[in-house]
Amino acid sequence: MQNTHTDFETQFExxxxxxxxxxxxxxxxxxxxxxxxxxxxxxxxxxxxxxxPEGNWLxxxxxxxxxCILLAKIQDEGGHGLYLxxxxxxxxxxxxxxxxxxxxGRAKYASIFNYPAVxxxxxxxxxWLVDGAAxxxxxxxxxxxxxxxARAMVRICKEESFHQRQGxxxxxxxxxxxxxxxxxxxxxxxxxxxxxxxxxxPHDAESAHSAQSMLWKIKRQxxxxxxxxxxxxxxxxxxxxxxxxxDKDLKWNEARGHYDFxxxxxDEFNRVVSGNGPCNRQRLQHHVKAHEDGAWVRDAMxxxxxxxxxxx
Amino acid sequence: MSEQIDTNNADTLARFAIRLGDxxxxxxxxxxxxxxxxxTLEEDLALSNVALDFLGRARMLYGYATxxxxxxxxxxxxxxxxRQYENLLLVELPRGDFAYTMLRQYLLDxxxxxxxxxxxxxxxxxxxxxxxxxxxxxxxxxxxSTDWIRRLGLGTEESHQRLQNATDELWGYVDELFETDxxxxxxxxxxxxxxxxxxxxxxxxxxTELLSASNISVPETPWxxxxxxxxLHTEHLGHLLSEMQYMQRxxxxxxx
Lengths: 312, 256
Prior knowledge:
With 312 residues, chain A is mainly alpha-helical. Chain A has helices spanning 2-17, 30-49, 51-55, 64-89, 95-103, 120-141, 147-175, 179-198, 210-215, 223-240, 266-276, 280-293, 295-308, and strands at 251-253, 258-260.
């Protein structure tokens, strides 16, 4: 028995080393499985909770075209949530259990959604900066070692790049607009820039799950590397439309070939992650309420389905 | 003289396209309210799909109206007041609970299935083309809402009661589906529009059959209200418009 177990472990490590994907029926260490459930479900919850700040502008979008694009985008996010819940379910948990963990505060979602979308420009900033940051992370996750997660990421990345473009396009239009529109864009830039950098998580040295996740190739690049990549790609986009990034330390470093940038306010990061951001309570309450309000509909679905199969 | 008639006809045609667009936009806006509020994630996505179809239809119809008489789709959507909207009252009612939303959807889908099938025969080629696209969408909407009526009617005691309540509430708005005013009468004579009254028997048969099969009793209420086509709306429309039109009203004439 002991030998068989070791064989499984050797086989698992060989696959990881050879860049082969781990599939649902393959043996995997329990900690690997747990780590994946944590990460994939957190990712799924983020997609679903992220529908709320954008949904806040759905009924007020400033043109019919923008309304349709925003609705299609929010629908995509829900769809991403579905694929990710399905990917997590291949690891032996149910969506109900994952949602329960979210409602009980045992599972997290991206902390960025604990900031409010107060103006239309925030919809631009969320698409451009928040989805932009998410893509940088997700592109690297297309090579993650767990097969269903990697495949979900490939699909998600295709749609996310469209989301980022629509967000940037909103900002471009505002930047080309009148003084009020320009001010709206700059204000959103100032409120969303730092939280977007925080999306990559703590510095590598302080990241709780990073080291083991890198060894297992769940995570393929470090938080700080990904953050740098995002800054490098975003600064020229901001400059192109005349928006000022709220960081006095931001400057091009010729020697490094990267932008240097100021340090994140880690107190704020910790405050929001630990539940004290402006919308933490609202986001969770909204999700719980929709779930509870829909309970009678789900009950009716099950009762009807049971009635259709009287012999089952 | 003939030019005068053509101009009048063009304006009538534009108004007809706009009112069909209004039906689609206002229901699309109501369906948007379900985003992140639906009973399951799958249903959230499905309601968004339906909303996108309605919003897309509104854009096609407004687009046609602006081809005829100028202006833009956004002017039509965001700068007209309550009295200028000519949508059916049924579509502007608040979304209510899920049973109310699905029953409203079913009543309308069952109507639109007949209506747009007939409109594909319109002598106006643009309206016939819009109808041909719409028929395919309505086919999906109707299959979905029909399934929901069965599930809710035959599901649990609570879902049955909620669906019955929705039926009792909404039944007073169905006669308006079949009303034809002078504007549409003129277009019917030219085989451009569809005579709504012709559809009523088939609609009633279909709807009452499904409701009965779902254990829902059809109310025998004499109470019927209409007025949408004359711009006489419920008090709900103004609130819907003030939310929907906020940005264009606050920043008139800007591009987004």
